[in-house]
Design a protein that fits this description.
Blueprint: E1 6-14, H1 26-34, E2 42-52, H2 62-67, E3 77-84, E4 89-96, E5 103-107, E6 121-125, H3 132-141, E7 147-152, H4 159-164, E8 174-176, E9 181-187, H5 189-196, E10 201-203, E11 207-212, H6 213-219, H7 229-232, E12 235-241, H8 249-254, E13 259-261
Parallel strand pairs: 1-2, 5-6, 6-7, 7-9, 8-10, 9-11, 11-12, 12-13
Antiparallel strand pairs: 2-4, 3-4
Helix pairs in contact: 5-6
Length: 269
């Protein structure tokens, strides 16, 4: 192991604050890897460390983490920290550039951008709203993205101003040219509109959509809305949560190409 010359380290770590003093940072990597592997000349990594927030007196900031990489032997390092008070947890992303990982999970509004040609699977999470510009940045940063999941229950701040000015059509259209699976189960209705409105998003054909039935019904105006119909016609698989078997005949007509399924639900009565 001490003769190792190349190392790729890609992981998500849950930190137990009873035994560890904080996020994985440059000091940890220098102490536990760089200083022990003296022949190491090619070190690539993407590490996301997560921990629950309790009564810590000191919470590391993005600048705190960045300072630990000042004298790091690799120059191009990205790092940032997010805190989620509602979920009572936090996370820190650190990675070398260019990143070679095929996955990038739990991206937030703190994401600094970049170009990730190897990433195929992306997940987004935040307790602050994702605006249209954020999704545009995601599309540009991950042009070969095939799977995307979104978790965000906060309404978009800019949506109302766009609607009041009637300028939705002035927003740049976001085209997901390779996306074949989209999970928007746990989201505010604004994000369902974000992906289904043809004035905001262009989906390719044959997309597998995971979504909650009642949210979909609301956003599509009980499967009659015209400006969401085009993208819905491109769905070839539709997995509906929150509904055993839908009796609404308009649903299949609105998704003419989709095989509709329902997650298995257990009856404990």
């Amino acid at each position: 192991m001490s003769n190792l010359e190349q190392l790729g380290l890609y992981m998500t770590i849950s930190i137990d604050t009873r035994y560890n003093d904080g996020f994985i940072d440059g000091n940890h990597l220098k102490r536990n890897i760089i200083n022990r592997l003296l022949r190491l000349n090619d070190f690539k990594f993407h590490i996301c460390s997560c921990m629950f927030i309790h009564d810590q007196l000191h919470l590391s900031s993005t600048k705190d983490i960045q300072r630990t990489f000042i004298d790091f032997p690799i120059n191009n390092i990205i790092s940032y920290v997010d805190y989620f008070p509602e979920a009572e947890r936090s996370q820190c992303q650190i990675y070398s550039c260019p990143s070679l990982t095929p996955h990038y999970e739990d991206i937030t509004n703190s994401f600094p951008g970049g170009f990730f040609k190897y990433v195929r699977v992306v997940s987004l999470f935040d307790e602050h709203p994702f605006e249209h510009e954020f999704f545009l940045q995601i599309q540009k940063s991950f042009p070969l993205m095939e799977e995307l999941s979104v978790v965000n229950c906060k309404s978009q701040n800019k949506k109302q101003s766009h609607e009041s000015n009637n300028d939705n059509r002035s927003l740049p259209l976001i085209e997901y040219s390779l996306l074949n699976e989209l999970a928007i189960n746990t989201v505010h209705d604004d994000y369902i509109e974000q992906f289904l409105l043809n004035t905001k998003t262009h989906l390719q054909n044959n997309v597998f959509l995971h979504i909650e039935y009642e949210s979909l019904q609301r956003v599509t105006h009980n499967f009659t809305r015209e400006d969401t119909r085009i993208n819905c016609m491109k769905i070839n698989k539709l997995k509906l949560r929150g509904e055993r078997i839908c009796q609404n005949s308009s649903l299949q007509a609105y998704f003419p190409c989709a095989k509709i399924s329902y997650p298995r639900q257990y009856n404990f009565e």
